[in-house]
# Entry
Amino acid sequence: MAILEAQSLTKRFGPVQAVDGVSLTVGQGEITGLLGPNGAGKSTTLHMLLGLVTPDSGGVTMFGLDLQKHRTEVLSRVNFSASYLGLPGVLHVREVLNSFARLYGLRDPRARVAEVAELLEIGPLLKRRTSDLSSGQHTRVQLGKALLNDPELLILDEPTAALDPDAGERIRNLLVSVARETGTALLITSHNMREVERMCDTIHFLAAGRIVASGSAAELAAHFGVVDLEEVFLKVAREGVPA
Ligand SMILES: Nc1ncnc2c1ncn2[C@@H]1O[C@H](COP(=O)(O)OP(=O)(O)O)[C@@H](O)[C@H]1O
Ligand SMILES: [Mg+2]
# Structure
């Protein structure tokens, strides 16, 4: 069952056509990747799905509801994390997570913060100021925040961008197990091709605001006549899409 359907989304910033007719669906529990060179329109697409950027045209349906008409209900079932999001540095991690838990209207905010802290192994960080966290710790806290409301769809913009290989691997495993165990669908962007290959059921390749190819990593490689996603990326980014 599709929990997200984006239809012909477009967005222009002045002279730049950032997104140019993107349609995609995400099924329940599915892990979907958005790939593409810098400036391809990945973040803008995600921001439209989150109602942070208003599309010039096109629409978004989530859980069978129109995002614009049912914004509050829809967004209460979604969450978002990105490498570029900040945390209020003067607050302690526990205060940040408690605040979000209350903001989300959770029935037992403290219990949920404790659960998420255990899941992400951030218990020892709860009394630290967010400004004192390393980037790996920061990412885990951001993901903890994003899991608080037990989202049915988790949208992640380059979640492992700031992480060393070991921390990245742990976050990937955690995300995959969350998706598999709770049925949470993931929509992620990444420039780590191995990560996308290993995590994603379906990949959409974006170039200049358009989806130029979709499929599993193996399907994309076969389609472009190359051995892996890294080569698909290089081929599309350098040569454009073959007619
Ligand atoms: N708020 C904005 N104002 C002006 N231009 C923007 C804005 N957001 C994105 N863009 C432009 O839109 C294009 C797509 O950007 P983005 O969606 O961030 O790409 P990606 O995430 O794939 O790197 C880029 O050319 C970028 O400079
Ligand atoms: Mg981006």
